[in-house]
Write a structure and sequence with these properties.
By secondary structure, this protein is an alpha+beta fold. The chain has helices at 2-23, 35-51, 54-57, 59-77, 81-102, 147-159, 177-199, 223-229; strands at residues 133-134, 165-169, 206-210, 231-236. The chain folds into two domains: 34-104; 133-236, OmpA-like domain (60s Ribosomal Protein L30, Chain: A). Helix 2 runs parallel beside helix 5 (81-102), helix 4 runs antiparallel to helix 5 and helix 6 crosses helix 7. The radius of gyration is 56 Å and the shape is rod-shaped. The relative contact order is 0.10.
């Protein structure tokens, strides 16, 4: 009896199991590894583009990202992960492009104006005062005691290349005016030649002038006065 009905019980149970299995929903495939993180990143980037005003500052890129975001959400909900993955990649790319377009551009400072031209500084020669050198009566030879002063003049001319000096020859009143003028010029030239030869001074920096007896500094009626008038003086000058 049990055997007879057990066969039918088994058949009914098998049919019932098949029916239950047919009514159960199909099991969805699993999410590919790493796709969830990419999906979250796409949503984050799209949200950032939205907050930065991508709809206005990057309308083309933002519109494409928005369409693909909607499609990715739909496919994700349907567990169509391959299709969702394609849209996710596009969402990320277009969102990044929109973000770059909407990012505030750094302000470029206008170029600084050129510095004002410095006025040309014309170097002026310093002012020197040199003692005169003296000569024997009727002569234009440089005495040994005059060389100390002439060496100081030469050293100053070498130290200051812009310095120019007038070498002024003078005489006492002994003799004719013409002879005294010639003698004073010889005295000035002998001093100029000394400076040029000993110190290598260019001739255009030394101006030799003879004044004869016209500019005495002492009384020619005395021996001491005439000695002081037989002289060469120095005066710096500019062109």
């Amino acid at each position: 009896m049990v055997y007879r009905y057990g066969k039918w019980v088994f058949i009914v149970m098998v049919c019932l199991g098949l029916a239950i299995a047919g009514c159960a929903p199909a099991k969805k495939p699993g999410v590919p590894i790493g796709l969830t993180a990419q999906y979250d990143e796409a949503k984050r980037l799209f949200q950032q583009a939205t907050e930065m005003g991508g709809k206005d500052c990057a309308p083309v890129e933002y519109a494409e990202a928005q369409v693909q975001m909607d499609h990715a959400d739909h496919e994700w909900g349907e567990a169509q992960y391959d299709e969702a993955a394609q849209s996710i990649a596009i969402v990320k790319q277009k969102s990044i492009e929109a973000i770059e377009k909407c990012r505030p551009k750094p302000e470029v400072a206008p170029p600084a104006p050129p510095p004002p031209e410095k006025p040309e500084v014309v170097e002026k020669p310093p002012t020197f005062t040199f003692a005169p050198v003296y000569f024997d009566a009727g002569k234009a030879d440089i005495r040994s005691d005059a060389m100390v002063i002439l060496d100081r003049v030469g050293a100053a001319l070498n130290e200051y290349p812009v310095l120019k000096v007038e070498v002024a020859g003078h005489s006492d009143s002994g003799g004719s005016e013409e002879a005294n003028m010639e003698l004073s010029m010889k005295r000035a030239r002998s001093v100029a030649i000394y400076l040029e030869d000993r110190f290598g001074i260019s001739p255009h920096r030394i101006k030799a002038v003879g004044y004869g007896e016209s500019r005495p500094v002492a009384d020619n009626s005395t021996v001491e006065g005439r000695r002081m008038n037989r002289r060469v003086e120095f005066r710096t000058f500019e062109d």
